[in-house]
Amino acid sequence: MPWLEDLKSIFEVWIVAAVVFWWLPSRIFRERPGRNAFLRFCGGLSRMALLTVIAAVVLSALHILNAGTLIALYTLMFLAYRMRHNRNRTAWRERFLSKVAWSEEWYQNAGWKRPFGVRWQVILSPQSAHMLPVMGAGIVVLLLVAQVRLWWPLHYLRFAYSDAYFQLLRIRELLHDTKPFSQPLVLPSILAAVSSLAAVDAMQVMRFLPPLLDVLLALGGGIAMAAVFRNNWVGVFATFILGCYTEKSVLSQGGMGTFFLLLGLAFLGDYYYHSNRANLYDAICAFALLALSLPQPFPLETTVTLLLSCLLGFVARLADRWAPAYRLGALLPLLLMTGVFIGRPPTYPRPNFLEYETAARQSLRIASTFPNQHWAIAAPNEQFAETFGLGQYEDLYQFVNQYQDRVTNPEFRFPYETLFVFVEKHPFQYFASEPKVVSFSILTDPTYRNYRSPAGRSSLEMAAMRLCERYAEVHPSRIFYEDQDLKIYQFSRD
Amino acid sequence: MRLDEITRMVLEVSPQLVDPREASAIVESCGVNDRLANDDFGMPHTFALGEYIFRHNRTAEVLPTDGPEKRASLSFRDEARLAAQKFSLNFAYALPWTLLLIIEYLKPNLLQLRPEWGGILSLSLIGSLISAGGFSQAITRIGYFYIGIKEPQLALRLCLLFVKWGCIACCGFAALGFVLANYFRFFPASYLICGCLNFIMLSALWMFCAMLSVQNRVWRIPLIFVIGGGVFALLRSYFGVIGPMFAANGASVAAAASFSISGFRKLIHTSPQGTSVPALPRLAVLAYMLVPFFFYGLIYFAFLFADRIAAGSATPWASGLSFGIDLQYKQGMDVALFIFLVLAAVVEYMANRFVRLWFRLAEEGTDVREMLRTNYRRSLTVICWVFAVLATGLWLAYHLFEYRVLLTAVLGSIGYFFVALALFNLILLLSLNRAERALTLMTVALACNGVTGYVLSHVFGVEYAAIGLLLGGIVLFTTSHKLIRIVLREADYFYALA
Q1: Are the C-beta atoms of residues A42 and A233 closer than 8 Å to each other?
Q2: Which of B208, B127, B235, B217 is nearest to B172 (CA)?
Q3: 8 Å CB contact between B103 and B225
Q4: Smallest Cα–Cα separation from B255: which of B289, B217, B281?
Q5: Sign of the torsion formed by the C-alpha atoms of B312, B314, B316 and B320
Q6: Are the Cβ atoms of B459 and A374 closer than 8 angstroms?
Q7: How do residues B420-463 score in pLDDT, each as one tens digit?
Q8: B300 lies in a domain?
Q9: Which pLDDT tens digit goes with each residue over A43-97?
Q10: Which residues of chain B does A177 touch, with a Cβ-Cβ cutoff of 8 Å?
Q11: How many Å apart are CA A237 and CA B129, to the nearest integer?
């Protein structure tokens, strides 16, 4: 049951990510109360992301990136913080005894029920009552953004963004201690750490974690606007537009940089008004991450969204100053959001699939069923990123060229313990029809010629199928998987 | 109150007075102040009274009772018996180990396994040595103590209690290890189940061996290994390697359990009757007292095998294995470990001799510092000489090895040499009831060993894991030597604390 496996993976990935980037920073980087909860969360996230990126790259360069070393590192950080604040033994002992006493009292007074209870006194306080409408609107917008961003990942294992395959390859390279310092660094390092700690395949992590980061990217834009213009409604508006109407993802080029730039602006905005030094440290971390993720110019849609939000922020600020009784600072963004929502309801981002869903599923099945490095796969190049480090890979085009003349020889054997050949009965169509105009550089690119061009892919798949059939006539073979689109041959040496 | 009455009262509170001020404090606690000291005993104040009692007691104490030769030192025969006992305890483990090495060298195919089996079995062996190491230390401590005070029945009950706790804890470790290793997909589930079973059996075996070593019937330890080896040899030709190995482990555990319990029963019958119905001491207090020794044992064995764990985890990912100790590394470190096992016997004997000398001199009341320093240097020199002899003797064997094995063996041997020197210091600290300090030093050294070995083995190659052991050994020796110098400088103070 693939949905059950997916559910397990979602649970593991999100729990581990929440522990590492939410719970752990709240324990390690304690702050004075009074700072905005969102900024506190984003600050902890930035610090922990920076530490994780540095740790993942250094550990990978030393060939020791794994769950054990990462847990040891986080534990050391946790202990170092604790020891810095509780130096002498008496303090430790007193702290321990007070904790024991507190837990006894907590249990006897049914303190465990408190987190589940509704805190009416907090909700009904004047400040909370003032915040309630904007919080409600924010939650609705976040749910909407989450639905838009999570739609494809929840339904498909294959990636909707073509950049995801390159990012996946980088994760696997880091996990297998190859090219630790190559770009991109930030997102693959974070995902590699989560993949190690959760013991979940990098492909599932790549599927479920970036959409959450996309939601955070939209939230980051909103927080930046709210912090700079001191208007939460403008923040909600920016979140809504960034999350529901832009195709930009953290997976695409410069996506992570945009996220950390927005967070850095939010921290600096809050520092300008409140002079809280924690904001400054968080901003430094965010800009360091921006520098590590090689800043790219903003894409047009993001620039337009941010400019629009800025304009709205100015107008709302002026309106609040000139006519405070009308509450235009809240009404304007709300009306605009409603108008946009009715005029053009949010849709799911356009998918850009590169393979059949079953091809991705079967690659994962092979990797999890057979022992590592005891099998090989001959398939289009998407499977290279999906199986790197787990088994051996041979490009389908090279495989066909290399073996098509020798397969009829009964003495000939493929040089692998177990070989899987992915053959498409109906070649996957990247383009609906053959493009009319293609530049020379693209035309000579083997990936385009063999896998993106409909004619090239069809010829290759046909040649591959012929090769497998001829080999199967004189050698033992079995069909590992077959449906209306895909057929996977399995050839074992025994 | 008379002078002999107050003297008796003071000596009842503290039979071995260390300082006149201690006697004065006890005198005051008995309700004697300066006026009473003057009126009843003719002393100007309580300090004078305390000094009188202290000197009077010292004079009585140093008077020879059974003749000077018996009090001064052990006879040559007793010394030789003690040395043989210490040596035989270490050789009980070293001998089967050496035999196994020779068999592996002569018949390399005899124990050949699939790499997955090799990985899980070596990991379970190392894990069992580490986890049972803590319990073995606790069992040895408690066993020696109660046999020393002629309570073998109590010793048996407590040792068995600790074995039970140890087995429960090891089952817990095995379950946790299974869950984690299965979750992180280190090994297939079938291998993991076998590994866990092997781990539990071996842990029980080491704990029963600790019980046997307490009884000084050390020749039974090699006998256990001979029984296990016999069962394996008998079944090997019919059932391959894995099945007979488990049968051999099972037979060894059964033999060790029966030997240790029957040994204790024999001890109960032969020794004079202690308390008629021995009641167990308060277990919470006992456990609290043994905690430093437990962790010391745990960390000591973790230190000894940290380099192997580091080397085992450094298998290239292209091999598809999660853990597997490189054969050449194993060969090199086995030779080094053999040197350490022999050296450890010498160290234990020398440390025992040193402590006996110290305590005897302290009881005689002579100034011990200079004499202890001289003796300490002499002991270290003896250890260095023994190492030099062993290393020279094995140099011929070294020449038979390939370069990588040779490099590992040389690095490992020097590393274990420093560990042996540090072991001498650690035994002194344990004898002085400074287990917490020994534990701290071991922890620091373990961190150095583990981190260096792990990083170097992954970056440069498996054989460099031995540098971790070398560095850890040097750190352990340097820090413990620094501490021992302070201890020897303040010998009286540490003797009083002990």
Answers
A1: no
A2: B127
A3: no
A4: B217
A5: positive
A6: no
A7: 999 999 998 888 888 888 888 999 999 999 999 999 988 888 88
A8: no
A9: 999 999 999 999 999 999 988 888 889 999 999 988 887 777 666 666 666 776 6
A10: 317, 458
A11: 62
Return the exposure string of B303-313: e unless at least 16 CB atoms fall within 10 Å of the residue's CB, then b.
Answer: bbbbbbbbbbb
B300 CA to chain A: closest CA distance, Å? 20
* Total Cβ atoms within 10 A of residue B191: 17
User: Is there a domain that residue B306 lies in?
Assistant: no
Where in chain A are the domains? 2-85+134-343, 357-492
Instruction: Look up the pTM and report it.
Output: 0.77
Q: Which two three-digit tokens encode residue B169?
A: 């804890």
Same domain, B437 and B387: yes
Inter-chain residue contact A199 with B184, CB threshold 8 Å: yes
- ipTM of the complex, rounded to two decimals: 0.74
Residue pair B54/B19 in contact by the 8 Å Cβ criterion: yes
Residue of chain A with shortest Cα separation from B317? A176
Is A374 close to B320, i.e. CB distance below 8 A?
Answer: yes
> With contacts defined as CB-CB under 8 Å, which chain B residues touch A373?
317-320
Instruction: List the structure tokens of B488.
Output: 């020897």
Cβ atoms of A260 and A46 within 8 Å: the answer is: yes
Q: Are the beta carbons of A199 and B317 separated by less than 8 Å?
A: no
Sign of the dihedral through C-alpha A64, A66, A70, A75? negative
| DSSP helix/strand/coil, A489 | strand
DSSP class per residue in B76-107: HHHHHHHHHHHHHHHHHHHHHHHHHHHHHHH-
Q: Are residues B318 and B215 in the same domain?
A: no
Is B287 inside any structural domain?
no
Distance between CA atoms of residues A486 and A91, nearest Å: 66
Range of the domain at B39: 3-63
Contacts of A188 (CB under 8 A, 6+ apart): A167, A170, A171, A173, A174
- Write the single-letter amino acid at A57: V
Q: Say whether both B328 and B462 belong to one domain.
A: yes
- Which chain A residue shows the shortest CA-CA distance from B182? A199
- Give B-chain residues touching A371 at CB under 8 angstroms: 188, 320
Q: Which chain A residue's Cα is nearest to B185?
A: A199
Interface of B with A (CB under 8 A): 183-185, 188, 314, 317-320, 454-455, 458-459
All residues of chain A having their beta carbon less than 8 Å from the beta carbon of residue B464 are none
Please state at what angle helix B152-183 crosses helix B115-148, rounded to 10 degrees. 160
Domain count, chain B: 3
Compute the distance between CA of residue B155 and CA of residue B210 in angstroms, rounded to an integer: 13
Q: Where are the beta strands (DSSP E) in A72-230?
A: none
Residue B270 falls inside a structural domain:
yes
- In this predicted model, what pLDDT tens digit does every residue of B75-110 receive, in sequence order? 666 667 666 666 666 666 666 667 776 776 666 666
- The residue type found at A9 is S
Residues of A in Cβ contact (< 8 Å) with B454: 64
- Using DSSP's 3-state secondary structure scheme, residue A444 falls into coil
